[in-house]
Amino acid sequence: MLFDKKQKNGLTKIKKKETEKEKEKKRKKKKDKIEKDKKTRQRSKKEKEEKEEKDKNKDKKEKKEKKDKDKKDKETDKKEKKDKKDKDKKDKKDKKDKDKDKEKDKDKEKDKDKETDKKDKDKKEKKEKKDKKDKNKDKKEKKDKKDKKDKKEKKDKKD
Fold first, then answer.
1. CA 74 from centroid of its chain's CA atoms
2. If I label 12, which of 18, 28, 135, 154 is the partner at 20 to 30 A Cα–Cα?
3. Cβ contacts of residue 3 below 8 Å, gap of 6+?
4. Is 15 exposed, middle or buried (0-12, 13-18, 19+ CB in 10 A)?
5. Per-residue pLDDT for the chain (159 aa), expressed as one digit of tens each?
6. What is the pTM of this model?
7. Where are the alpha helices (H) located in the chain, listed in sequence order?
């Protein structure tokens, strides 16, 4: 197709105008893209910072919980140790008291046995004394009887 000079210039102008519009459109598109990328980077940066802050707080919280748990465990261990010590002390005291009571009972039993032995001995001595007395009495009575008999015989003989 052949264009005359006039038409050609007109087309060129139209073409140039369209090109300007297209360039403007491209520039706007590029600017929008740059703006969008900038916003995306800012958002990403913000999200990253928030995530880091969240992780930091989480770590801090975990560290605190661990510290509290360790402290609690330590206190529990300390308490258990103290309770065990107190129990051992109490058991030792109870054993000592029991041994003491046992010893006391033993001494009491010994004293009781001693007293019983003494009573038995006293009883035996009393019985022996009584037996001796009875024997002496019998002997005396026998002697008195004999003397009486002898006296009677003597009297009878005399008569």
1. 12
2. 28
3. 11
4. exposed
5. 444 455 555 555 555 666 778 888 989 999 999 999 999 999 999 999 999 999 999 999 999 999 999 999 999 999 999 999 999 999 999 999 999 999 999 999 998 888 998 888 899 999 998 888 888 888 888 888 888 888 777 777 776
6. 0.37
7. 5-158
